[in-house]
Design goal:
Layout (H helix, E strand, L loop, with lengths): L6 E3 L5 E3 L3 E2 L3 E8 L3 E4 L5 E3 L34
Antiparallel strand pairs: 1-2, 3-4, 4-5, 5-6
Bound molecules: zinc ion.
C-alpha cells in the first residue's frame, strides 16, 4: 500500500492533501475522488462536489452579412433548336 499518492509535496515542502477524509470514518480514511463526487470505500459515504459556476461566454457573433445579392439581370436568350 502506498499512501504517497494521497499526498503531494510542493517545491516549498508543503504537504497537500489530495483526498479529503471521510467524515464518518474519521481521519485516516480517504475518500476516492470521482468525477463529480467523493466516495468513501469504507462506509460508502458519498459527498457531492460543489459545482463551480461556469462562465458562459455569450459572445453572440451574429455577423449579419448584409451583402445584397445583386444579380445582374441577364437577358435570357432562348435558344431555339432548329
Ligand atoms: Zn467512510
Amino acid at each position: 500500500m502506498s499512501v504517497h499518492k494521497y499526498y503531494k509535496i510542493t517545491d516549498d515542502g508543503k504537504l497537500i492533501r489530495l483526498n479529503p477524509f471521510c467524515p464518518r470514518c474519521g481521519p485516516g480514511y480517504f475518500m476516492a475522488q470521482n468525477y463529480d463526487r467523493l466516495t468513501c470505500g469504507h462506509c460508502g459515504y458519498t459527498e457531492f462536489k460543489k459545482r463551480t459556476p461556469k462562465k458562459e461566454t455569450t459572445s453572440e457573433e451574429s455577423k449579419k452579412s448584409s451583402a445584397k445579392a445583386e444579380e445582374p439581370q441577364k437577358g435570357k436568350k432562348k435558344r431555339k433548336k432548329r
